[in-house]
Each structure stands twice: as C-alpha cells, then as structure tokens.
Amino acid sequence: MKSIARMLPPLALVGALALVPVTTSSLAAADTTSYQELEKFMSVYERVKANYVDKVDDHTLIKGAINGMLSALDPHSSYVEASDFDQLKTTTDGNYGGLGLTVSMEDGVVKVIAPTEDTPAWRAGIKSGDYITHINGEFLNDLTLDEAVAKMKGNPGTSVKLTIIRPGRDKPLDVTLTRERIDIHTFTGNVGEQTKAALVAIDKATGGHPLGYIVDLRSNPGGLLDQAVDVADDFLEGGEIVSQRGRDKDDIERYYARPGDMAHGLPVIVLTDAGTASASEIVAGALQDHRRALIMGETSFGKGSVQTVVQTGPDSALRLTTARYYTPSGRSVQAGGIDPDIAVPQLTDADYKDRKFIREADLRRHLLAQAKVEDKLLEADDTPDPRFTAKADELEKKGIKDFQLYYAMNTLKRLAAPAAIASAAPSKHSR
C-alpha cells in the first residue's frame, strides 16, 4: 500500500483506498466505516464524471466535494482559492474596496448582520436584518456567499445597485452605492497597540484626569484572538481573559492579563449590539466577568468559535473551526452572546422595534454552546422602561443622533461624579 501512495495522484489514491478489501490486519490501520463512505464517494464521482450532461473536470468536482463537506459542519468553516483566497486575506490586511457590510447567507438569501459606521452601506441606511436579493439586477439565489460578497466589492469610485427587502415594508428598495476604500475597524493588525496609543492620547488631552472611558464595540465583527487579548489586557490588572477549548477535554489554552491597567481603575462602559462578534465578544466578556466594565446596549452576536486558517497552496486555504472560546467565568459565548448589564435600545433608529437582528443562533448548522442558560427565575415584565420612551424624531430635535452613545456618556458622568466630589472635598487633616 505504501508503494501505491507514492505512485498514485491524490484522487486515484482515494479510489484505491476505497477499494482495499477490509481484512483482520487492515482493521488495525483503518476504520471500516471510513472505507465504506469513501467507496460511496467514488461511486458518485465516477457516475458524475461519466454521465453528467456536460464534461466536468476533476478540479471542479473535488472543490465542490470539499465545499460540501465543510458546509455540512458549521457556517464558518470553508475552503477558498483564487479570488476568494485574496478576499480572505483582506481580513488581516485591514482594508478593501467595497460597501462596508457584514453579511451571512441562509437558504440562498444574503442577510445583513451589520453595516460598518461611516461607510456607503451605513450612509445609505442599510440595516441589520435587511435581505439583499439582487446585485446590479442579478438574482443571488444560485451564488455562494463568497461569490455574492465578491460582487459587492470592487474598485473605489465604481457603483453597484442593491435590491433590499426589509421586514415590515411591502416593497423592495433599490439602492445605488458608490464603493469606497473600507478601512476594517476590527481586531486586525496592531489594534492592541493602537488602543494603547489612544489611551495615552486621552490622558494627555485631559491632563491625566479623564472621567472614564467608553469602548464602542458595536457592529465590530471581530478578528484576531491575540489582538482581542491585547485590548482586554489594557483595562485589566491581571486574571484570565479567555480560554480556548478544543475537541479533547484536556485541549485548553488560557490567556491572561499582565499587571498594568492603562485606564487607572476609572469607570469603563462597553457598548455592544447584534453586530458585536467574535474577538469583540472576548473583550466584552472578559471586562464584564472581572467587573471591570459596564456592558451597555444590546445582546451581542454570539460567535464563540475559533477558526484556524491553514494555507493549502499558493492561492488556497482551509478555514476550519477548531475550538470554542469561554469567558473567565466559564461562559460559552457561542450562540448566546454577551448580555448587557444595562439594555439600552437605539431609540434614534426610528424602526428599531420592527427589525429582526441576525445573530449566530439564526445561522444554519451553528455550533451549540455546550452550556445551558436557565432563565426560569427571571420574571417577564412588559412594563415600558420610562428611560427609553422617547421617539426618534424627538431625539433628533434635541440634536441626539446616537442614543446609545448619548446614554453611555451620561452614565459615565454619573459614575465619575462621586470620585470627582471626593477629590474636591477638603481632607479632614487639612489646615
């Protein structure tokens, strides 16, 4: 068998393996079920190759088989090559030409998770929960998510027309957008160092006496794990930040904060929404568990899985889910997300009540959290919160464009007030 492995190409080797008779000696080296399943694959492959209406090459068939295998696992495992491989690299390069949208796909429909602030999509009013059905008049039903995203990307200055269906509205919306260079404000590159620089700049601008800090993680889809750890570390004196747990019970990797809170123990508020995902949730979960920050806004997206990217060729890569991550208290964020300490609706969004937010739990074949949350002791209370009864037009007249940020700033002032009063009060021992 070893000589066959050296001589045969990979596809032929699969066929050879599938046809090896299962004997007592071979059982020690291979799983009988695996051979049987490979034999099924080869049977279908040979039938398609011989009888499909058009000639089809091996590369197309094998790539399709790989994509099918990975799509059966979860929404985040995938295989990319050629232009899709270049698209994958933009997640770490930090910018691309496009519209500024984070999207998912289910049943052939592209769903908007969140637009990025101050991008063409955001300025055009595209919202979480919108469905994109056509791009430049082309129906997206037969396209993969990567293919649909590739059509939305392009050179800055070029235009593209999207057809949007919004729940609660009777007619589709046609929106023509001009692509721009989109800077990815996520946990890529050296965002940890940029956060440190921002904290130092705030200290200098306030003479070393800021009231506190607001960390806005809304619509931030995440990024690199090490950068999330670095950012959380900036606000902590020590302790665990996150743990990464694989298939085996002993496969656990933990990440810890180093001494040195660059926020000097001052109040911290973290803003989250349905677009806060992955690395952003690591930061929010760590600061929440350590009681270091007040989480405010809406429940986050709930992507608590780790993808490992392995380059399989010059222009191809495998992105495979290899672990789940957990907050310091042992909570799995997967499919549940980070619940805010104070739920604050975005009242400046006139139709926020009617929009359906898309989260990890809405994606087909999402991983389970491996932990159940018991809400039986929580009482249902439908009484309107008097803090959040204002209408969007009323807030606009007052010049409030972002209610969540406005509420966070006022809360920060209240949190900082006792410390300011205490520092201003004369000492008992003063003369």
Description of the structure:
The structure is a single chain. The chain is of the alpha+beta class. The protein has three domains: 2-56, no CATH class; 95-183, Pdz3 Domain, CATH 2.30.42; 191-353 and 367-422, Alpha-Beta Complex (2-enoyl-CoA Hydratase, Chain A, domain 1), CATH 3.90.226.10. Helix content is 32%, strand content 21%. It has helices at residues 2-7, 10-19, 24-27, 32-51, 58-71, 83-93, 120-123, 145-152, 191-205, 225-233, 279-289, 392-397, 403-424, and strands spanning 78-81, 95-98, 101-106, 109-115, 131-135, 138-139, 159-165, 173-178, 180-183, 213-216, 240-245, 252-256, 268-272, 294-297, 305-313, 316-326, 342-343. The strands form four sheets. Strands 3, 4, 5, 6, 7 and 8 form a six-stranded antiparallel β-sheet that branches. Strands 1, 11, 12, 15 and 16 form a five-stranded antiparallel β-sheet that branches. A hairpin with a 2-residue loop joins strand 15 (305-313) and strand 16 (316-326). The longest helix has 22 residues, at 403-424. The protein is globular. The N and C termini lie far apart (93 Å). Mean pLDDT is 83; it is low at 1-24, 372-379 and 423-431.
> What's the CATH H-level superfamily name of the largest domain?
2-enoyl-CoA Hydratase, Chain A, domain 1
- Which spans have pLDDT < 50 for at least 5 consecutive residues? 1-24, 372-379, 423-431
Give me the Rg, rounded. 26 Å
Order of helices and strands: HHHHHEHEEEHEEHEEEHEHEEEHEEEEHH
Based on secondary structure, the structural category is alpha+beta
Mean pLDDT equals 83
Largest sheet: 6 strands, antiparallel
- How many discrete domains? 3
| Annotation field: number of helices | 13
CATH topology call of the largest domain: 2-enoyl-CoA Hydratase, Chain A, domain 1
Determine the N-to-C terminus distance: 93 Å
